[in-house]
Amino acid sequence: MAREKGWYWPWLIVGILAAGMIPNLVFVAIAVNDPSFAVEKDYYEKAKHWDEEMARRRASRALGWRVELEVQPAGELPGFRQIVAVVRDRNGVPLENCRVELEAFHNARAANRLTAVLDRDGTRHTATLPMRRAGIWIFNLAVEREGRAYFEMQRRELPAVLP
Description:
By secondary structure, the chain is of the alpha+beta class. It has one domain: Immunoglobulin-like, CATH 2.60.40. The chain is 27% helix and 37% strand. It is built from three helices and eight strands. The strands form two sheets. The chain has a four-stranded antiparallel beta sheet, with no helix packed on it. A hairpin with a 7-residue loop joins strand 3 and strand 4. The chain is elongated, with a radius of gyration of 25 Å. It starts with 8 loop residues before the first helix and ends in a 5-residue tail after the last strand.
């Protein structure tokens, strides 16, 4: 049985289209699974409530509080860090009866966020988190005490923690 002349042209066109689509599908798969890519959670809602956020930040500054944050390797747990926070008032006096929440993430891995409510021991608040990666870490702190709220963001450059 003889083939008709030009039978291969439809297959050639399909092949050319597939040759363009396959690399694009590979690039999409890489982009979707890239741990360094992150989109701010609820970004649209945050944008709609920007004025409230600015008022919250002003109220936080007006309290005059600050959080002293220490981040050290947790010796007994390889790859973990011990976080110690002390909340102080505007005169530097440590505040008691605070609830401290923490959100931490590496600047290059913003999609991987660690959250914790720090354990209270007097005026010290502690947590142990898996933070092996070296580099810039972002710490978002939320403090509540007697119906008042304080928010602070700190950036720290941390060395690697050995596994």
